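Human: Cast an eye over this sequence-structure pair and say how the chain folds.
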Amino acid sequence: MAVSGYNAYQQNKIATASPADLTLMLYEGAIKFCNIAIAGVEQNDIQKAHTNIKKVEAIIVEFRSTLDFKYEVAKDFDNVYAYLYDRLVEANIKKDKEILEEVLGHLRGMRDTWKEVMVRAKQKS
């Protein structure tokens, strides 16, 4: 019962979230999965590392698919996302913790910047 209640809460949270909140949730998810992948590498659990790297890759693909190229900055974001995706592929092939930590640092920085953008947007409205 508790699990299904939690799942319903999570589904409702996603269904009612603003686009800005959904972006933040994606960043949080990518960070979570990257941390789990790092743990998988540390534990020599190849499947755990692989599965979670693939989840981060899927989030990066989602970010890239939603870029609006009528804005100049979209090309910059696309370049960053392409770089992160390539690094994730390399990390997955090599099961390389250092590469994953590099990607994690970028994701945290982008998430923190996004949070700041959200705060400033709320202040203006």
Summary: The chain is about 85% helix and 0% strand. The mean pLDDT is 93.
